[in-house]
Amino acid sequence: MTADRAQIVALSAGELADAVRTGTIAAVEAARAYLAQVEDTAARLGAYVRTTPALALAEAAAVDAARARGEPLGPLAGVPYGLKDSLVTAGVATAAGSRMLAGWVPPYDGAHVRRMRAAGAVLLGKLALDEFGMGAHGDLCADVPEDRFLDGAGGERASEHARMDMSGRTFAPVRARSGAEGGADAAARAAARGGGWPSGHPREGSGRGEGPRGAWSSGHVPSDSPSGAAGRRWSGPSNPWSSGHVPGGSSSGAAAAVAGRAAAVAVGSDTGGSIRVPAARCGLVGVRPTWGRVSRAGLVAFASSLDTVGPLARTVDDAARVLTCLAGQDDADSTSLRAPVPDYAAMAARGRGDGLRGVTIGVDPAGLAGVEPAVAEAFAAALATLVGVGAAIVEVALPDPGQALAAYAALSAVEAVSNLARYDGVRYGLCVPKDSFAATAAATRGAGFGREVKRRLVLGAWLQAEPELLARARAARATATAGLQAALAGCDALASPTCAEAGVRVREAVLEDSLRAGRALVDLDVDRFTVAASLAGLPALSLPCGLTAGPPALPIGLHLVGRRLEEGRLLAIAAAFEAATPWRARLFAGPEGA
Amino acid sequence: MTSELVPVIGLEVHCRLKTASKLFSACPLRPGAAANSATDPYTWALPGTLPTVNAAAVALAVRLAAALGCEVAEESGWDRKHYFYPDLPKGYQISQHARPLARGGGLEVPDPEAGPWATRVIALQRLHLEEDAAKVHAGALLDYNRAGAPLVEIVTAPVIRSAAEAARVLRSLRLLLLRLGVSDATMEDGSLRCDVNVSLQRRGSSAPGVRCEIKNLNSFNFIERAVTAEVERQEALLAAGVPVTPVTLRYDPARAAVQVMRVKETELEYRWLPEPDLPPLRVDPAAAAAARASLPELPERTRMRYCVLGLAPIEAAQLIDEPVLGDWYDAALTSLGPRGPALARRLCKWLTVELIGRVPPAQLASAKVVPAALAELVRMLECGEVSAPAAKQILDLLVEEGGVPGGIAAREGLLLENDDAALTAAIVEVLRGYPQQVAQYRAGKATLWGYLIGRVMQVLRGRADPQRVHKLLVVALQSPPPGDETI
């Protein structure tokens, strides 16, 4: 009846949910196994910025109780998962990898945690990311050493707020008096928020841990974690395949956790490639859905017209199951699509069973110039595999990646300036009080944003005043979109490598400050295969298609782009491919088993 | 030289729509609520929050656009307008810049210079929806209750010709908003706000002058004074050979002068960005048509109706400018049915002179006297059922206790007797008390007529029409007084 930890974490999410549903494994058992795994891997992976063990056990116990009452269980019943820390969770601090939001405890749940909870999934904690999702490698996370930050600078911060409120010299919200004059409604809401409302400020003294729901323990990753700790140059999560290589960004913690067996699945976000690139680097399946397929309500915005939320998983089936739970219209996001949500896992299973007869896959040979030989080899082998399971390969011409990357850099920066304008130190998050609003906002933003975020904000602010350049960027986006659509008119999916290189060494990523500008261009190029689908709002995924010879052996990703709302077809192709290759078994076993 | 210059004025009016919740979230709007209590995560611009459009606000804006004859776009767009100020929680305001909800149309306003009933149509450029900012209190404290409240901005063409006309345009718009029920349209509480653009143009020239904007005028009087002051300021500059520079101004009521606040922002400085969090706003043409079909009578049409009913311009203005009065009047008029038009003028006098003398307009809605009662009283007066003094007495009682005028008149004995036999009997009864005088009168002493009718009227006062008493007395005495031609 009881399964040991190794057995539990060796199961796919689908197998685990089935075991919980049949009663073979209790959800609480699964949660304990993963929590132990999270703790044991914390030092090595640095994937989590915040764990929620009490919440996880409570959610797991609720699943077991529902089963005991004979109630139907959700499709992810008892599946322990992690959320990228740019996805808002009520009562659990959400910082989006930024000093700006360190210690901010949201008073509301985003769509993603709500949907995962409804599906029976169990939240293990919040996963590291590049600040606000801006990064290609996973090393630009101010949040990894957050506990240190809170214990040190955080205390300072709380007192600064108090000073600011009392001085009355700079702007502050009038404190709402809850209760009596607000009526029962307001009192109830104030109670639900644990009194932290309305500013959303963390409670002074102990902003962490005890959220509005009271029962949640902080469960921090030990602050002496080597990842991100002082004295270590690499300040992001580790790639479980090689500590000398980056996990990829910006969903770096999500990829590290799932590949490192510290979560069964994870929910990340993808703007230019932030799910697909780390999925490729860590040997996972990562899906960027059609823009609008998954609600963005509760995603800390970076570039709204490009931001999407999707799964990172060890198998195509797991990714499909999570996507089925996340997808669908949401009243809280007006841009979410009303199209009915198919059973993606069933579509994937059909692909796996029926093969790819009649499916055509487009490839642009010209796009492969400059790709690392190991990647090119793996990609060629992947195409042969696809042909082997019945697919036809056709040549297509894809949009110029240089134009697409430039358009992406410009448009994402312009939207970021707008989306990040709210961080002014007045209502929530970091505040560095000065004598005027302008000075307070400037000092707060100066202290709160990291260098890469500032670089993009400066670029975006400059572009906002250059309408002609912006118009060119929008035109380039339209060209890329039309190019992909034209290519997809003649085939069912487009295939390419996910990244041109099989791995990026940590020391290459962490360049000296003087070389940062150069790095920005190099980093941008990481998204050369992924960014066009982002601009076009089309669904795309990355799945493992090989390992480098090593040592260390590093995973290689195959990138597929599909037509609008055809995630199911992409997953079917991916499932057929996965079934025909050894990579699922070898990569699923993880770095240790490979 | 300055005499050749004519002012060219345009208004940008913001009015807050009367909805239950904010423009982009379900957060309730609670006027007068404790500071920062009418807020929600979206109002605070908490990370991860997204806007969702309030359909009720769109419906009110479409109703207003229909009333103004604007062309409502089937599809309009949302844009972010950026500026850094703590009253703007997101750092940008969601507005409609490139594709407004509605374009064109016009507002009909009185044109007294052209005649007492004349009007002119002020062309409109656009009408769009946007969200309000937070309120900044003294001591740099912020109240976000107002942040996110739904506003409609209406931009007129630069066709207004004088300060007085600018104030008239805003007054007419306010009456229209009230008539439509889309806004409280009160300048004092900020539900109606106005910015004015002023430039001077050479008469006969089509070259536009340099435009300056006076921000946030919050009373009708200030608009007139501010525009006058700004026209004088620009005239003085040009007279001295100094070119006008585009600036944003504020009106200082204490000094009755305009003050430069800052150099005017250009559109570029707002760094407009298409709003990626909202799909385009779609308004079904059928919904726009339905909004047009369900419009009430608009104030200028009402004025024409009053003109046809024979009211004096000043009477019509009184009813229109005070919507409570106008609504009361129309209700009373309606209750008169086909008799209404004939009694319209008299009814207006009785409302605006007699009733308002007893009940202030603000209390009319809750008064005991109802429109149908006043209308019935006017009808009774017109039909000779009560005398004018009796009618005033009845109105006093209607105000005091409500009820119907016929009942009060009967109870108080104020109905005029109109049964000739009964009246004759009453007259004969009086005459019996003065046999000597009757005999003398009948014998030819005509000077006694006055004495006799005096005695009769003393008894019948308030119960009978004097004309009729006169006739019946003649019959009773069997001969008229000398020179009486009434028989």
From TrEMBL, chain A:
Task: Indicate, by first and last residue, each region the UniProt record lists as having compositional bias (Low complexity).
Answer: 176-192
One MF term in the entry's GO annotations: catalytic activity
Q: Which Pfam families match?
A: Amidase
The Amidase domain, residue ranges: 29-137, 238-571
State the superkingdom: Bacteria
Family to which this protein belongs: Belongs to the amidase family.
Which protein, by its recorded name, is this?
Amidase
From TrEMBL, chain B:
Occurrences of domain Asn/Gln amidotransferase (ranges): 327-477
This chain's function reads: Allows the formation of correctly charged Asn-tRNA(Asn) or Gln-tRNA(Gln) through the transamidation of misacylated Asp-tRNA(Asn) or Glu-tRNA(Gln) in organisms which lack either or both of asparaginyl-tRNA or glutaminyl-tRNA synthetases. The reaction takes place in the presence of glutamine and ATP through an activated phospho-Asp-tRNA(Asn) or phospho-Glu-tRNA(Gln).
Q: Which Pfam families match?
A: GatB_N, GatB_Yqey
GO MF annotations, alphabetized: asparaginyl-tRNA synthase (glutamine-hydrolyzing) activity; ATP binding; glutaminyl-tRNA synthase (glutamine-hydrolyzing) activity; transferase activity
UniProt organism field = Nannocystis exedens
Q: Is this entry keyworded Transferase? A: yes
| Keyword Transferase attributed | yes
Which SMART domains does the entry link to? GatB_Yqey (SM00845)
**HAMAP family linked:** GatB
Keywords in alphabetical order: ATP-binding, Ligase, Nucleotide-binding, Protein biosynthesis, Transferase
Q: Which family does it belong to?
A: Belongs to the GatB/GatE family. GatB subfamily.
The EC number(s) this enzyme carries: 6.3.5.-
Spell out the InterPro entries in the cross-references: Asn/Gln-tRNA_amidoTrfase_suB/E (IPR017959), Asn/Gln-tRNA_Trfase_suB/E_cat (IPR006075), Asn/Gln_amidotransferase (IPR018027), Asn/Gln_tRNA_amidoTrase-B-like (IPR003789), GatB (IPR004413), GatB_Yqey_C_2 (IPR023168), Gln-tRNA_amidoTrfase_suB_CS (IPR017958), Gln_synth/guanido_kin_cat_dom (IPR014746)
Catalyzed reactions = L-glutamyl-tRNA(Gln) + L-glutamine + ATP + H2O = L-glutaminyl-tRNA(Gln) + L-glutamate + ADP + phosphate + H(+); L-aspartyl-tRNA(Asn) + L-glutamine + ATP + H2O = L-asparaginyl-tRNA(Asn) + L-glutamate + ADP + phosphate + 2 H(+)
Q: How does it assemble?
A: Heterotrimer of A, B and C subunits.
The protein depicted here goes by the name: Aspartyl/glutamyl-tRNA(Asn/Gln) amidotransferase subunit B
Q: Tell me, what is an example of a GO biological process annotation in this record?
A: translation
Cite the PROSITE patterns for this sequence: GATB
What EC class is this? ligase
Q: Gene encoding this polypeptide?
A: gatB
Its transmembrane ranges are none
